[in-house]
Amino acid sequence: IPATGVLGVPKGEGPHLTVFLQVLGLWTNTVSKQGFSLQRFRILGENPIYSAGGIVRTSRHYKTKPTHGIGRYRHLVKVLEPKKKKAKVELRAINVGTDYEYGVLNIHLTAYDMTLAESYARYVHRLCNQLSIKVEESYAMPTKTMEVMRLPDQGNKMVLDSVLTTHERVVQISGLSATFAEIFLEILQINLPEGVRLSVREHTEEDFKGRFKARPELEELLAKLN
User: Fold this and answer.
1) Residue spans per domain, the chain
2) Which helix (H) or strand (E) holds 199?
3) Which pTM value belongs to this model?
4) Is domain 104-214 annotated with CATH 3.20.20.10?
5) Of 107, 116, 174, 110, whose CA–CA distance to 142 is shortest?
């Protein structure tokens, strides 16, 4: 019995060794091809779009990563709230006050210079906040215009000399103590700038109606309907 070497190859036999190596090479190539085919089949199974009939398939292989939201930007834009219609301003109940404190008071500031009236109104508002006086609201009254006419040296026809525009600001306060009212008014008078007229009076229904400009055309139509 001839001695055999590694892998059962007979020792010392040249022709037998050559045939054995050829058979071994064919077997290795066959195994490699089968392995490559299996690997290719597995890849095609994972990516069916590349396989035969994969184009016809409609199911997604990436269901965990949907693409239906690509290109949308509405979720990035802030949603604008619809503008609310301005509510109709109604007259609130007027606080009359008590024996120890005033009710609702209006501080009227009138001047021909709008900047001066606005600046002093801000000062009064800040002063009330510092002195813990409740400010109900601060608003502007409609601008009033007055024409100044003069009589020329010759003739009887009046000539327009100038137009005066009056600006008025109102700071509405409430709960002013009767004992502190005198001190508060004295502070306002001391710091009153030149050209500004100050007046303080109780709030009435006429003051509320005076905030709105008159509309003669609308009043005429309402009169015709009535």
Assistant:
1) 6-46, 104-214
2) strand 196-202
3) 0.55
4) no
5) 110
| Of 108 and 6, more confident | 108
CA 72 remoteness from chain centre: 22
pLDDT of 44: 46
Dig out the tokens for 52 from the structure: 């035969």
Handedness of CA 99, 176, 210, 83 (dihedral sign): negative
Q: Are 176 and 103 in contact, with CB atoms under 8 Å apart?
A: no
- CB proximity list for 183: less than 8 A, separation 6 or greater: none
Would you say how long the chain is, in residues? 226
Q: With contact defined as beta carbons under 8 Å apart, do 21 and 10 qualify?
A: no
Collapsing DSSP states into helix, strand and coil, what is residue 114?
Answer: helix
Cβ 47 vs Cβ 62: under 8 Å: no
d(CA 124, CA 118): 10
Residue 206 parent element (H or E):
helix 205-209
Tokens of 31: 């195994």
